[in-house]
Amino acid sequence: MISTFAQAGWLRYASPKPFYRLAGRMIPGFAIAAILFVMPGIQIALFVAPTDAVQGDVYRIMFVHVPAAWMSMLLYVVMAAYAGLGLVLNARLSAMMARAIAPTGALFTALALITGALWGRPAWGAWWVWDARLTSELILLFLYLGFISLHGAIDDTRRADRACTVLALAGVVNIPVIYFSVQWWYTLHQGASLSFGSGVSMDTSMLAGILVMTLAFWCYAIAIVLVRVRRIIDEREF
Amino acid sequence: MLRLTARIVHRELALTWRRRTSALGCLLFFVIAASLFPLAVGADPALLRAIAPGVLWVTALFAAMLSLTRLFGPDFADGALDQMLLSPQSLLAMVMAKIGAHWLTSGFALVLLAPFLALQYGLSFDAVCRLTLALLIGTPVLSLIGSVGAALTLGVRGGGMLLAVLVLPLETPVLIFGANAADASRTDGWSAANFSLLGAGLLAALALCPVATTAALRISAE
Amino acid sequence: MNQDLFVQSENELQESRNALLSVDKLGFDRAGEMLFSNVGFNVDAGQVLQIHGPNGSGKTTLLRVLAGLLRPSAGTIRWRGKDAHAHPESWRQSLAYLGHLNGISDELTAAENLAFSAVLGDVAEERVEIEEAALKSVGLDRYRHAIVRGLSQGQKRRLAISRLLLEHKPLWLLDEPAAALDEESSGVLEECIKGHLDRGGIVLMTTHKLITTSPPATRNLYFEPSGRCSD
Asked: Are the CB atoms for B193 and B220 separated by under 8 Å?
């Protein structure tokens, strides 16, 4: 498979300078796609999806909260995958991609937590509830911040890249364990589950809305990560 | 291999004994920190009994974290770590021996202290037994996961704090299973499940962490 | 800072096929900055290669790359004809490294440090006589059971040197071994090096001062900030 890629000339994009140009061409496309997805997304979120019988209109924050939470998890896995790839193939660019993804991942995690709080206040009367998802998101935020801190603390970029790879891989292996243990902890202490999703019966339009917003976030994430990786390439190579 | 392991453990124990102030420091921290909670939340016996497993687990976690910088730090500083990396002997075996010896002087010592602290919190004999057993199984996992962080942050600015920031989120499952295993207010069924999960965690950590730590050490030597 | 040393003559090419240690086109870059590139040389049994250069020119990095602590960005290292990176165990079995740091623990005694080094070096049997002989060669036999913390800088360096005598490794990589040594101790160091060369060993050392009496089979490698280095 690698040889067919090589034949198609794709392999040159594994190197930072050609990738820099390719990324530059891709960014506007993804940025526009993000806007094109977010518009119908907002429309569905605010106007098309019906008012919920139990939670009223407050639940609409779910259209930001759920996609943000999904993105935060997905981006960690992608980051760990790039990190692992960088280790195996000894490719500088993969490590740079991992470094570029981290802040965006942290941002989405923070967004999920903030929207969780904004949802929780009217829905449950408290700014913070220790439910399984929010608690897991909090720990995920700590993992992202740890990754960024480690990279910043090590002066030698090669060592920083490789150290963060080990950290990201340790994190990705640990994440299912963390999620499971938090879920376990939650059921031990609360009995009945009180997740945000309960009480909101899912209309197809709601599902559509969530998916569209997820796509919008995904395109935004790609665009912003490419911008960031170009900046990193700039710093390191030129 | 056995000779190597025995020699490393012997060396680590000798070094810890000669640098005993730092090892004792972390145990003292455990005792002091655990004593702070009643001062802060009041001495109501029922409240203390309820919070004891959690409080003792968290303070054990912090004490274990404090002791991690001495796992590889001194060897890194005096060049002995370079010699270990250059040795034709198995680095993995050396790392496992070091972690084992380190646990004996940190985690295991905390396990021995815990019953006395548990008395301060008025836990019943049964509860004390559960707590001690949970710590016995859980503290090696803390050392194992912590060793990865210790190896990654060698010689880095703000090492100790950064180590804690990196390792504490990864150790939350141990905390959850361990504290709940120790919690005598749970039924026996729940408790047994927590212990099994802790045990499984220990096996997984034994299998995975030393490998990660070895890789991290080679990376840090650069 | 590009340091180039080209293997040019036919003689040298022939040499590289037979030499014990053969380094070809070795390069190392850190964070985009090339510390050295295209470094090559051949060293045979009984020869010493002195690496000269001011501080910060990359000498220590070269030695660490040769020891295997750092991975080179380019080039090969061949020991007895085999690629060092392909066979790391046999590579490590053959070398002894003395860096800027002594590699000894302050809180252990001299004897304990040597015993540990013996185990690390996979020395077949730990014999107290060998350790005593090593300490004697560097003049530290009186300090066998002294905690290292109480020794002077020069004595600690001598202890680190005595480690080399324990192990019987054919290749010695020494980074400024004479640092912190007085006249008399420098003499001891030279004795050790000469003895090692007589037994057919190889020494690669960095230095900023030439050892006063260079043994006959000395080669030199110069790292200069300006560029090419010479033999």
From this structure: no
